[in-house]
Amino acid sequence: MKSNIKTTLGVIIGNRDFFPDKLVAEARTEIVALFEKLNITPILLTDADTKLGGVETFKEAQRCADLFKKHADSIQGILVVLPNFGDEKGVAETIKLANLNVPVLVQGYPDDLNKMDVVNRRDAWCGKISVCNNLYQFGIKYSLTTKHVVSPSDESFITDLKNFIAVCRVVKGMRNVRIGAVGARPGAFNTVRYSEKILQRNGISVTTVDLSEILGNANKLTADHARVKEKLDGIKAYTSTGKTPNEKLVQIAKLDVVLADFMAENALDATAIQCWTSLQQNYGCNVCTSMSMMSENMLPSACEVDVTGTLSMYAMQLASGTPSALVDWNNNYANDDSKCVLFHCGNWAKSFLPDIQISTAPILGTSVGVENTYGALEGRTPASPLTYGRISTDDSLGIIKAYVGEGELTNDALNTFGNRAVAQINNLQGLMQYVCRNGFEHHVVMNASKTAGILTEAFDNYLGWKVYQHG
């Protein structure tokens, strides 16, 4: 079955002249067929460019690098294929000359015990070590397959390749992401402080706007404005509105129009919005519904101006291809040390909330009036796979750091309000010790996937961040 997401990879087929040439031709045919099946576009030499389309000499490395440079805008990663021992210098020189700065996956073919004669033996087991040694010397970052040598038809390699493509998406996305910070950090939330300068040094741009500008522009719109009507229809199609008064729905729709314009004008990939408590006091509703709709549409949005929280949402979205949600590590679950309650007053993407409806935020309502909190969402997340994690800037150390892990969301009974879920995580108590000792925020991000390994590979190996993978 083909994926709907198109990926382009550069392919280097290594060769060494005293090993059988026919293995190079066979590998090229096999890789092209596999890529077609997986909806991957290969950029690789033909047999008219070099001997059988392989890379061995420096001139062949130059030709391959020139080809890669012509497709630099589309190549997301490089696959190194070793049907025989391969020429380690040829591989390393190609990647150095191309200078694409993308992830690299190294694969070597296994030998057949019945074909260990001179005309059939590969020795890629040894050749892969030599290639990796040269990549290491050149300072080129690379990824490895689960099995040291593996046939491209092996299911473990197909999984490795799909995971590698996800790593490529995360690396490319995180090096160019643009986040909108709407409003000031709530005064009571020191926990969501972050460093714009550290983020920018890592290619992550933050565009700020005063909340008064957003609210002022929203107040200029009227209920009969065409775009407000369009947004209102979209809200009603997205979720049950419950007992929400129509005038509150119009308020939400007007705010949605202005936020959409802000994102479009600044080419933003994600937003972090001030929602506690200025929005309720100065505009009279919650922005949760708009945030949920944006997150569902792969434009993640976090509350309380948690910029690194929405950055974490974006990273997990890139890894899995599905929406993420910002949550609080909120409550113990009875006496079960492996379970906890995840909670927020209501902005999770619809994908997490099959029983979604617009409601109010009771906790916030105690201070600003419940009538000013319409727009919060109500819903319970059912059992599903779980990847959780958090990216943070550590100003004291001048670094970006992160933690990630996997667990399960369960159907355990939970009698409360808002957006809520029960998570089960091995050694949860040890994880909470790590979170507290290393100064991480009370916010964490969840995604219905198993992608912690992908995120660790992208963050640690390619982006150079300090990462802890739990469990």
TrEMBL record:
Keywords for this protein: Carbohydrate metabolism, Isomerase
Pfam families referenced in this protein's UniProt entry, alphabetically: Fucose_iso_C
The protein's name in its UniProt record: Fucose isomerase
Gene Ontology BP, a term: fucose metabolic process
UniProt source species: Niastella populi
Highest taxon, organism lineage: Bacteria
InterPro entries in UniProt: Fuc_isomerase_C, Fucose_isomerase_N/cen_sf
Lineage: Bacteria, Pseudomonadati, Bacteroidota, Chitinophagia, Chitinophagales
Any coiled-coil regions, as ranges: none
L-fucose isomerase C-terminal domain: residues covered: 342-468
GO MF entry, a single one: L-fucose isomerase activity
Any single Gene Ontology cellular-component annotation: cytoplasm
